TrEMBL record:
PROSITE patterns reported in the protein's UniProt record: RESPONSE_REGULATORY, SIGMA54_INTERACT_1, SIGMA54_INTERACT_2, SIGMA54_INTERACT_3, SIGMA54_INTERACT_4
Gene Ontology MF terms in the entry: ATP binding; sequence-specific DNA binding
Coiled-coil region: none
Protein name, per record: Sigma-54-dependent Fis family transcriptional regulator
GO BP of this protein: phosphorelay signal transduction system; regulation of DNA-templated transcription
Response regulatory domain segment(s): 5-119
Highest taxon of source: Bacteria
InterPro entries: AAA+_ATPase, AAA_lid_NorR, CheY-like_superfamily, Homeodomain-like_sf, HTH_Fis, P-loop_NTPase, Sig_transdc_resp-reg_receiver, Sigma_54_int
Sequence positions bearing 4-aspartylphosphate: 54
UniProt key word Transcription regulation: yes
Any single Pfam family the record assigns to this protein: Response_reg
């Protein structure tokens, strides 16, 4: 990290030299001036991370230095130096934007702590500003936040395939943002003026899924008083995402294959072919090749869907995007709740950067929504994190003292810990982890964790 630059302004030589000596020993770059007039001239030419100014000086006093500093560089922090007799004035200065004050005579440790805290706030502001600029710069991909190589490669591929009408198979763990990838493909396609619809194939029975996709004719079943258009008609000219495609029944797989091959379909209870003008995208968190080998997914349908495959990286694979995502979610939930939570403490960011995130981006989003809801000031603190995440942090710190763990070992430990906390209730554990039960079962099998029962 670049060394902090600190401007010291005091008309007392001994006071200036003492401060400069302490700060240089701490590794800071310092400039020392003996008047407010010189300080104003210096601030016009150079920017500083921190200004430490005496309050009472001739001609130009500390309050004027504070005001000019904030005009020229609003993010620069200012510490007022004052005698006991002017503490009330120093407090007034804080109300005008000063970070804090040092009352003479001050202790060396007091200086060190206050300066470090002021600089942490300065760097946090700069980081937030940078993150906001990066988030705003995601032109063409407002839904896909990230600048890591994995995400840049994904965006490049999306930009290349979006203008085509090819079927796309989107693969990725639960919570990685597969639907956002599908929406991005649609928004960059020639079909963007028409509708984008998504349906989770695992949320419907075979019969209900057929009605949702294909619609039905009048009197197709008891209670069908009129014709209902299915999603394939409703989204005509646009794009449809078939999420969790691996959960589709064999019968529905045959019907979907016909749609892809013949470009038409029949409504439930109908005999008239209805032409299809729609782009079909499919997504799954399963390995479809294995599903084909096991006989649960049709090979011919797999080949029809697998024209182009996109692999959405897990959050563990794009860990450097966590600060960007946090900033995005802070702004999203602050706006939604009418709050002004704009910063994340360094300790919180350290915890998040060291966490395995088995629930991926969706889990991070849930964590940030909770944090914004609980925050009473402008900064997310450790106390705003879920208890299980805070406790997991201490367990990781304890383990780190004796051994270094791989990311998978961290995830295994955390999943086991959560299951212990909920007494083996897998439904509740999956909810806490931010993943579905299928993903949890898969991870239990991979890590050979035996928690028995069906709960």
């Amino acid at each position: 990290m670049k060394r902090a630059r600190i401007l010291i302004v005091d008309d007392e030589l001994i006071a200036r030299e003492n401060l400069e000596h302490v700060l240089k020993r701490e590794g800071y770059d310092t400039v020392s001036l003996d008047s407010g007039v010189k300080a104003l001239e210096e601030l016009e030419k150079n920017e500083y991370d921190l200004v430490m100014t005496d309050l009472r000086m001739q001609v130009v006093d500390g309050m004027q230095v504070l005001e000019r500093t904030k005009e020229l560089s609003p993010d620069t922090e200012v510490i007022m130096i004052t005698g006991h007799a002017t503490v009330s004035t120093a407090v007034a200065a804080m109300q005008r934007g000063a970070y804090h004050y040092l009352a003479k005579p001050y202790k060396i440790d007091e200086v060190r702590i206050l300066v470090r805290q002021a600089l942490e706030k300065r760097w946090l502001k700069k980081e937030v500003t940078t993150l906001r600029e990066v988030v705003k710069s995601q032109k063409g991909f407002p839904l896909l936040i990230g600048k890591t190589p994995h995400m840049e490669a994904l965006k490049a591929t999306i930009a290349q395939i979006a203008p085509t009408d090819s079927t796309v198979l989107i693969l990725g763990e639960t919570g990685t943002g597969k639907e956002l990838v599908a929406k991005s493909i649609h928004s960059l396609s020639t079909r963007s003026a028409h509708r984008f619809l998504a349906i989770n194939c695992g949320s419907f029975t075979e019969e209900l899924l057929a009605h949702e996709l294909f619609g039905h004719e009048k009197e197709a079943f008891t209670g069908a008083r009129g014709v209902k258009k299915g999603l394939l008609e409703v989204a005509a000219g646009g794009t449809i995402l078939l999420d969790e495609i691996a959960e589709m029944s064999p019968t529905m797989q045959v019907k979907l294959l016909r749609v892809l091959q013949e470009k038409n379909f029949f409504r439930v209870g109908g005999t008239t072919e209805i032409p299809v003008n729609i782009r079909i995208l499919a997504a799954t968190n399963k390995d479809l090749k294995k599903e084909v080998e096991q006989g649960t997914f049709r090979q011919d349908l797999y080949y029809r869907l697998n024209v182009i495959t996109l692999q959405v990286p897990s959050l563990a694979e794009r860990r450097d995007d966590i600060p960007l995502l946090c900033q995005h979610f802070l702004e999203k939930f602050s706006a939604a709740q009418g709050k002004h939570v704009s910063e994340i403490s360094e300790e919180v960011m350290e915890i998040l950067m060291g966490y395995a995130f088995p629930g991926n981006v969706r889990e991070l989003e849930n964590i940030m929504e909770r944090a914004v809801t609980l925050a009473t000031g402008s900064t997310v603190e450790v106390a705003h994190l879920p208890m299980d995440l805070r406790e997991h942090r201490f367990e990781v710190q304890r383990r780190a003292k004796t051994e270094l763990l791989t990311l998978e070992e961290h995830e295994k430990d955390y999943i086991a810990w959560v299951l212990n906390q909920v007494k083996g209730n897998k439904t509740k554990a999956a909810e806490i982890l931010g993943i579905d039960r299928v993903s949890l079962w898969r991870k239990l099998k991979r890590y050979q964790l035996d928690f028995g029962g069906e709960g």
